[in-house]
Request: fold
Amino acid sequence: MERFKYQAEIDALINKGKKMPDIFSPENKEAYRFVFCRSVINHLPVYIQQPQRALKDKAVVEGYALSCFETKDAADKMQQRLAAKFNAIGDSLCCGIIENPDGMITAASPVSRHFELFEFEDCDLSTKFKVIKTYGNF
Amino acid sequence: METFNYIGQQSGIDYNHITKIVNLMYFEGPLLAYYVGNNGENYLLYWIDNDDKYNRWLVFTTEVESVYRYISGKTSLLNLLKKYSNDQIAVVDIDNEINFHERGIIRRNTLKSSYLPSKDSYFDILDVDCSPYREDRAICRLSTAGGRKRVKTPTYQV
Reply:
């Protein structure tokens, strides 16, 4: 099996007893992500972003995955919910297709339609995800 | 990040000995979290801003009953922060190594409105559904039918 982009970090957590969630091949899954349209640094997992927005939570492997939504409506709903916090999360919505060589994904929540993408080493979402919408007055 | 007019320098909160109970809002990291101190104090850590070195949080002191009132849909987050917490708020910058740097104390009524949640900011399952922590998603089970906004229990196993 291919190595994940952050395999060493994930292995370190698993060696400490953390568990990988159930993951599946994406099979050309349409996905939506929040990004900053004027930034060249997008598509970084929570634990790789600097400074990471973290408190004294116990580390989880999902910290090395990327948040995605299954539908535009689900992403818009979350953006409305988090509107006051959006300078933390992104000012735009991008869309792309996650293919099997890109990585492995978790099952989507039936509530938020949110899922995680664990990228393989050669995955580069910046080349295949395009901004489709900019939110608010940024 | 914005510069505040601090009314004091130290809150007396021992950030090395506060314990996180649950995240009340989470997306790609916590946005609102409930903590307790060694002496039973109840704190809400509320994210407001960041730059390339720090994430900035406001630390509100409140009561556990007020937190429960919010989770069960009886009051909004705006009310929880403006009405059901102490007037003095600590401003804390947290660095990439999760070190807490308290910058000072401000009065609640000096917060600009853009930092505050909206009037209809009632707790919703979406606030925690993206959290990887089971305990965050499980707080939805604390909602009551008598609350202003019913919070649905997720149908998947948490």
